[in-house]
Structure formats: C-alpha cells, structure tokens
Amino acid sequence: MDSVTPFIVLSAILFTIGSVGVLTRRNAIVVFMCVELMLNACNLALVAFAKQHGNLDGQVAAFFVMVVAAAEVVVGLAIIMTIFRTRRSASVDDASLLKY
Amino acid sequence: MIAFWILAPIMVLAALSILFVRKAVHAALLLAVVMLSLAVLYLALEAPFLFAVQIIVYTGAILMLFLFVLMLVGVDASDSVVETIRGQRLFAVLGGLILGVTLVLGVGQITLGTVVGLGEVNEPGNIEALANILFSRYVFAFEVTSALLITAAMGAMVLAHRERLTPKPTQADLAAQRVRDYAQSGLHLGPLPPPGVFARHNAVDTPALLPDGTAAEASVSRVLAARGTVRSAPRDVEALQRSIDYAPDAIGDKPEDRTEGDAN
Description:
Radius of gyration of chain A: 17 Å
Number of strands of chain B: 0
Oligomer: heterodimer
Mean pLDDT of chain B: 82
Largest sheet of chain B: none
Largest sheet of chain A: none
Mean pLDDT of chain A: 88
Low-confidence stretches of chain A: none
C-alpha cells in the first residue's frame, strides 16, 4: 500500500480536533495550542501532497507555514501575557470589555 | 507505512486528550507528543529536512515558548467549566463532527492516482533540492519572511516591555522602611524564623515551635500554607514514637531497656 490517502485522512482528523478545541476550550493558551495543531495538520497534508505529485513545492509551503507559525506564536503569547498582566486571567471569557 | 499505523492512533489519542485535560501543562505535553510523531511521519513522507525543522522549531522552540508562558501565567491556571454562551460546547462538538465526517468522507472517496514519489526530485539530496527552489522561485517570499520575523521580534519586545514608573527601592530605602514599620506598628525587625528541620526529612514544610509549643506561622512559606501541605511537628514526633514502639526489634533492644536508658 503506497497511497498517501491515510495521511490526508489523519490530517483531516487532526484539523477537526484542533478546530473543536478552539471552539470549546476557555484558556487562551490552550486555544492557541489548538491553532498550532490545526497548522500542523495542514502541514501534514502539504507534505503528503508533495509526495503524491513528486515535486517539492508542498514541502516549501510547509516550511513557510512553520516560519509564519513561529512568528505568530511569539506575538500571540506576548499578547496573552500582556492581557494576563492587566487582568490576572488567561481565560478568553474575561477579555470581553469591548462588548459593553 | 508501519510507522504511520503505529503513530496515527497515538496522535489522534493525544490530540483528543488535549480537548479533555484540565491543566494547560498537560495539553502542552500532549501537543509535544503529536508534534514529535508528526516529525516521524515527515520522515516517512521523504521530507528529512522538515523532520529536523519540525523537531527544532516546533518541539524545541514553540513548545518551550508555550511552557515558559505557562510558567509566567501560573501552571495551575486551569480551565473554567462555565459556559458563557448556552449550548456552545454542544454545538461546537456537533459542528466539529460534521466537519470531520465531511472531510474524511470527501478525502476518502477521491482517488489520487499513482503516487509519483520524491525519489527523482530528491536525487541531489532533499536539502539541496529544497534550497534550489527556495532560492530561485521562492526567493522573494523567503526575503519577506525575514521582514516578518523582525516585525514579530519587535512586536514581542514592545508588548512584553514594562516601563518602570517608580524608582527602584535601594537597600537603604528598604532598611529605612523596616525601621519605620517597627516604630509605627511594632513589626519584627529581623528576618523571619526558619522552619523546623528534623533528621527525618528536610522539613521546610514543618513550622518551627515557639517556646510554648505552638507553631510559628511565619516560619513556613505562605505558598505551602495556601496549598495545605504544612506538616505538624508534634504529630511527626508522635508518629515516630509509635513506629518505634511497634517495632522494638528494629532498634535492637527491648522497650524496657530503652526506658531504663532514658531514665539514666
């Protein structure tokens, strides 16, 4: 069996789990981890398609996704820390002042 | 392919547990499991460069960053289970199920044709082949990435920087403050009393005893008191006494001898 379909299915499952995590978890850091999980799932699909089509564009795309994810994590965690410093909580429910 | 069938269940299980564990640290460790397994899958998909990058960048750098922030925020900052929007969790799970079933069924039904494989492209070596495209067709994107990284670093510095509004108190200021506290409210001038330390264990969690036999509250850390792990010194002594009485052979002489010896 030399098909890449199982990899794509696994990627779809991981992406789904990550999206459910983003919707259900309340801790901002865990929400962030679930976003990382979704990015990783997409990377797996990209690398699998690179093998399917026999060119390296998919791997380069996955590489760029990793770089952007690193930059995103740095800024995102800095924002979470700033919010935690001002209101002593990392819950996404507590940062709701814009509503009023 | 064997690696895939071993790792795929582990990855799905670990990812699912991220949804259910209460503590953020456990979620981070489970995410590390997923990411490391993913690195091995990259190796199975003929991407040795991404295998290394996945371990170094994701597991090494990004997850460590997560753990550092968790330490700053407080390790036991666990999730609240209160729903702010009624039925949100149910609808989220339902929507997730629909998305997952649609994706898996859709992907499972299409046929992708024969796998071309990367053997030919990877002929000069995966890293050389990647470098060839990265520095020819994608060179502009690569340069833009450097701007992105500098912006991210600057952004993190600006966000995490805290301006000091009051001057830092010097040692002389602190000493003067202590003496002032003593003069005004009679607060003890010297350092706090040390905890009681016994030969059984290095007992920073056991309060020292005052001359009247009561525990000195200031001698144990407030953190330990808040966690409720403070031992009681008299109970420790009693437990030791009891264990000696129940097992006299372990010491080697009879209880009577011991009491005689104590009397002497």
